[in-house]
Amino acid sequence: MGLELFQASQAAREVFEEADDSLGFHLSQLIFHGPAVTLQDTINSQPAIMTVSIAAWKAWQEAVGSDAPPPVSVAGHSLGEYTCMVVSGVLDFSQGVSLVRERGRLMQQASRRRPGAMAAILGLDEFALEHICAETGVELANINSEDQIVISGDKRAVARAIDLASARGAKKTISLPVSGAFHSSLMHQAQQGLSDALAELELHDPQIPIVANSTATPMTTAAEVQDEAISGLCRCVRWKSSVEYMVGSGVSRFVEFGPGRVLASLIKRIDRGVEAVTLSDPESIRKLADGA
């Protein structure tokens, strides 16, 4: 992923080079060429996804120049909050990519000490799943849309919750290929390490409001962003509510930067009346820039 951006955009190329310099190894080559099994390790996938996302953002800025209107707000799903921190000026990209690699290392370490699992449940609402959580000990990890919610927790508890969800009318259950129980209390150990890492950085107030995953409300101070980053390791990503907040505040066009189009698809499921596009390669950037 990201190779076309690297080849077509000087601004994107500088992002990949800065990631390599900041981390002290050729992350860019791992992003472009794999191997996939190494890239999928959370310690590598987190800085990789952030790098491609920022490269797409910089390529977009390069394409449209200074005339492009700035976002009225930004939001990211879990890791994406850190991309938002860079875009909104809370920290610079070099700091951000190093921080998310450390975040990945801490999450990987916590997963080894307290193994867990995650599963997507389709077709049951939040109320029904809260009851299942109470019965099994799992936790709500991502509320992605009205009918797509992810649960997280101990492996046996997640398996039990999947059985209950199926018995109570879930249209589909999907065990996710992840290395741990992210956005659950099993990540508690990682919080202290992340707090220490953040304490070493000078964070700035966001220049663009960041809609917080855990509260679906805008963050406008560095202190709010820091608290969200730490607590967010164990708290639910309320993506549906975040999108609804932005739509309610007047947002009608959403632009997703980075690999894949998962968030754009979710946004359209949450509200079919808004526009949602993904910028992940030179062609998609060119098309939107021509119509901007």
Note down, in words, how this protein is organized:
The chain is 54% helix and 13% strand. The chain has 292 residues and is an alpha+beta fold. The strands form three sheets. Strands 2-3-1-4 form a four-stranded antiparallel sheet. Strands 5-6 form a two-stranded antiparallel sheet. Strands 7-8 form a two-stranded parallel sheet. α2 crosses α7, α5 packs parallel to α14 and α7 packs antiparallel against α10. The longest helix is centred in the N-terminal third of the chain and has 23 residues. The chain is globular, with a radius of gyration of 19 Å. The two termini are 25 Å apart. The mean pLDDT is 96.
List the helices and strands and how they pair.
Layout: H1 3-8, H2 10-23, H3 27-33, H4 36-39, H5 42-64, H6 80-87, H7 93-113, E1 117-122, H8 126-136, E2 139-145, E3 148-153, H9 155-167, E4 172-175, H10 188-199, E5 210-211, E6 218-219, H11 222-231, H12 239-248, E7 253-257, H13 262-270, E8 275-279, H14 282-291
Parallel strand pairs: 7-8
Antiparallel strand pairs: 1-3, 1-4, 2-3, 5-6
